[in-house]
Amino acid sequence: MTRESTMRKKEKCQDSEDKDKISGLPDELLLKILLLLPTKTAVRTSILSKRWEFLWMWLPKLEYDCSDYSPDEQERFNRFINLNLPLHKAPVIESLRLKFNGPVQTFEPQAIELWVAFAVSHCIRELSLAFRVIHSDYVMRHPARLPSSLYICKSLVILNLNDDVLIDVPRMACLPFLKTLFLRRVTYSYENSLTKLLSSCPVLEDLVLERSEFDYLGTWKVIVPSLQRLTIEILRTNDFRELVVRTPSLKYFKIIDDGASEDDNYSFDSNTMPNLEEVYIDSVNLGLDKFVSSITYVKRLTLCIRVDTQEALYRAGIAFNHLKHLKLCQCDSNWSKLLARLLNDSPNLQELEIYQHADHEMSLFNPWVSWENELNCVPKCLLSTLETFKWTKMIATEKASHLLKYIFKYASRLKTATVVLENAPEATVQETAITFSSTACQFVCEFE
């Protein structure tokens, strides 16, 4: 026997010993090891030996992603789930995550209903379903229906539903421990489906809603007293008429709409949100006056909106006394007028950032506020509280330079300032830096 063959034999023996040592570990420890692996890999351990054959079937967390499978692989995946999920041995399924993306021929809505029903019967805590079905012109769309037992599940804490999933809430619905709910591009079976579902969640804290192109609901009503975080993304159609928000405990609010056209206005109705800390709004036609009235307690505010100067920006007398951080997009031609108004009405502002949304075109900066002439008095925040100023993607124009000069002239408490010029020659950068080199704050001027 050669030395090399002897070494190989020793290595095989060592590998066998190592496998035996691992196989000899308690089931609880082996399951913890399997939980560190993707479910697909954990299933493959069943071929190692009799000891491992059914061990994976005790896993409390299951995640299957066949979004990049071929049609044949997806069919095998469906058969595998249909065969093995009903035989799963774990008494409690803590989480079930399924992701499907494929042609309608390999999609079985009835199977989804059975899989979810099984998970509910095993005290599911987290359920995530993402089914995006590729439809042909000759095949009607049939989203997956969920079992009625899901809507009365007492163990469910997190529910994440995406794309081709039907929300059909039964007459009796109660999710007593659901805290997180994501509904992205789902289909609602009737007008009141969303309202009914939300009313069945007494302790809901985090809600994400994204409107689908197949969503024909005229009104979205979010009436949840316990809600703390709300994200809404609206793909507007002519059917959408009203957004109602009643969330007195809300701390974070983000709303985005596609701004299809100025004719697609919808009304916004909300109560005051005294606990609100952060707001992000990217909207073309949201009624600014009514919206602003409900968020006056906000501490952090990001705005990317269309400003109609023919009307009042928002009602006189409104003040953002709690606002500390303001971030304003410069894509609207009237953004400087909104900035002037917000500076006047935010006496305790500490941080100001002017930015450009990556997907939005740069405005032509017209009309523009004449900072020295049109402002009757210097905003209080500039004189006493503003500490940080940042302007990214600044176009080096005379009007922009006037704004900078105004900020640096009156912001006596400013500690740091950063200006990033867009497509500006280095000479312009140097000139800008020299202009403000006399200020006491730390000043950084760059160009892209």
TrEMBL record:
Domain of life: Eukaryota
Alphabetical list of PROSITE patterns matching this protein: FBOX (PS50181)
Domain F-box, residue spans: 19-55
InterPro entries per the UniProt record, alphabetical: F-box-like_dom_sf, F-box_dom, FBD, FBL13/AtMIF1-like, LRR_At1g61320_AtMIF1, LRR_dom_sf
Any Pfam family hit: F-box
Name assigned to this protein: F-box/LRR-repeat protein At4g15060
Phylogenetic placement of the source organism: Eukaryota, Viridiplantae, Streptophyta, Embryophyta, Tracheophyta
The gene coding this protein: LOC104728071
